[in-house]
């Protein structure tokens, strides 16, 4: 199965990446950012776009894939090398192998076709659904999130919400149903529910997001 072309909904995901890059570059700091979440997203894009030069969909599609890969890798470079002294390793302590191994195993069990590219693509879908957990875990440990980090998380969450709306539309208009993408997308959106509430009730009202008072 060839992944569907990137469309305009992906601009919310691109916006999230740009927000994070600008936050790191302008503040010269990675404080509050989970390098592990960024690493998981980079792994997601690498596995999903391994066929980048094998299956040409459109120039737009290719450009967007390259932008995702390059921008996420640059973010990793900022976190682990250029601004590594500002990276909070103590709070970014989520064990990502607990996410990678189960999602990889599930990709071997539940996929559309038992082939290398298909399994890697399926793995990327499953992993993406939980890739934000290290960032959310880090926020829960520190008890708060900077406003710009909150915007980054919101952009990531709304990106997946838009995809759920797209799946509903395609089901009614095209009778198309992909349970792998749907289930993964729903799980990812559910993980954001509490964050969405705090974002709307606090950040949009000009207040800093704090979690400990809600625990």
TrEMBL record:
Keywords on record: Endoplasmic reticulum, ER-Golgi transport, Membrane, Protein transport, Receptor, Transmembrane, Transmembrane helix, Transport
Pfam families according to UniProt: ER_lumen_recept
UniProt KW Transport keyword: yes
Membrane-related topology note: Multi-pass membrane protein
Stored InterPro entries: ER_ret_rcpt (IPR000133)
Record's subcellular location: Endoplasmic reticulum membrane
TM region positions: 12-31, 63-81, 93-110, 116-139, 151-173, 179-200
GO biological process, one term: protein retention in ER lumen
Top-level taxonomic group: Eukaryota
PROSITE patterns listed in its UniProt record: ER_LUMEN_RECEPTOR_2 (PS00952)
Listed GO CC annotations: endoplasmic reticulum membrane
Annotated GO MF terms: ER retention sequence binding
Family the entry assigns: Belongs to the ERD2 family.
Annotated PANTHER family: ER LUMEN PROTEIN RETAINING RECEPTOR (PTHR10585)
Protein name: ER lumen protein-retaining receptor
Source organism of this protein record: Rotaria sordida
